[in-house]
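Lab notebook: predicted structure, single chain.

Context: the supervisor wants predicted structures on file for every construct in the current expression panel, including those that have not yet been purified. This is the next one on the list. No modifications to the sequence; it matches the entry in the shared construct table.
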Amino acid sequence: MKLRVRSELVYAFPQDTQAIVAIHVARTPDQAILSESLTISPDGPILQDMADHHGERRFRAAFEGETSIVYEATVDNAKPRLLSPNARLEPWLELPPPVLEYLLPSRYCPSDKFMSFAHREFGDLAPGGTQVLAVLDWIYNHVDYVPGSSHGGTTAENTFVDRAGICRDFTHLGISICRALNVPARAVSAYGWQLNPPDFHAVFEVYLDSVWWLVDATRLVPVENLVRVATGRDAADIAFLTTSGSCDLINQAVSVELLTA
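Prediction complete. Output recorded below exactly as produced.
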């Protein structure tokens, strides 16, 4: 599947502000970047970091005044495997060391506070894929997708109480419950074809059977329609814009187009 993605960020920076930007499509085996471009106005020096071990690429810059950042890419997206209910939960002793951090609580995913609930609600199910699929069903059936119902400080614990949120909140709740069930889980930012309204999308992955499986607790976008950008413990690691000071949003637009030719 060939997809063309585009993001345009227009922000006003009241003073010289350092920024880390994560809007580039990741370089991973399941998605090939056929072409891409980055345009910043007014033009200025940037530092393009090399792809990290996740394949994600960030750039650093200093902005002042009204600044426009436009990124476009054409991607050949391989169809991912859908999570199997038979996917095996591996003992901690078998996990690769880089996976271990995704078992632990993090800023937005206080998984230690979900231990009792997770084992009471899902403990009788077969560990692994069956449990994770049940977690996804539970979130979809018990949490409402309500734009504006959360803010930048909302944690999975808040979402569990409020029973409402947006994609990042669904993702944080899913990660927290899965980690409480001893399933490594991590957040993923992505472009999503047919996401309505178009925007950056947050989903997550679980590590079972020595493979990372991509899942979407909101069910707003089939996983085969996703183009990966960044990966991390939670939203703090995958934000598309991180700045050293305050800035004001003027305009933000994201689009994903299916290329038929």
